[in-house]
Amino acid sequence: MKPVAGSGWSVSAVRISLTMFAFQVDAYGLLPHSGAIQVAQVLPPFEMLLGLWLLSGIGLRFSSVCTSFLLAGFLFAIVWAYAHGLKIDCGCGNHEEVGPKKIIEDSLMLALAVGVAIEAFKLRASRIPQDSRSGVGSGPKRA
């Protein structure tokens, strides 16, 4: 089997990117160094899969709640870093420093995710027939 052209470059680029991301996660100081490395390796693929899952609409209630919790965690980390006066890269991939702009941006994304979750639960509730929700008329009919 021949190696795919450029595959060595892409593997090394991913390793460098994950290493740089590990430095950014570690800069928050919320995790031990080994934990920051593990988070840096797991978080990017998890975010991609979660985004695809959310876009697919399959299990929208669960995927939107997972997205909301993940965004709440990001928002917490950014607010914590800003409150402690850290001048660090947010780790979002666009080389922005933590601060009011990122807090507002992440707050709006969290509000959107929570809105999607609420609407997903409302949609599910509207699909359940009224009689089965109240328990009236759900039993067998008697003659």
Characterise the protein shown here:
The chain is mostly helical and 143 residues long. It has a domain at 43-125. Helices cover 71% and strands 0% of the residues. It is built from five helices and no strands. The longest helix has 28 residues, at 100-127.
In short:
This protein is an all-alpha fold. It has helices at about 5-25, 35-55, 60-85, 100-125, 130-135.
Write the layout of secondary structure elements.
Blueprint (H helix, E strand, L loop, with lengths): L6 H21 L5 H24 L3 H24 L16 H28 L2 H5 L9
Helix pairs in contact: 1-2, 2-3, 3-4
Q: Which keywords apply here?
A:
globular; 5 helices; 143 residues; mainly alpha
Low-pLDDT sequence parts: none
Summarize the main sheet. Answer: none
* N-C termini distance: 73 Å
Number of helices: 5
Rounded to an integer in angstroms, the radius of gyration calculated over CA atoms is: 22 Å
Taken as a percent bin, the fraction of beta residues is: under 5%
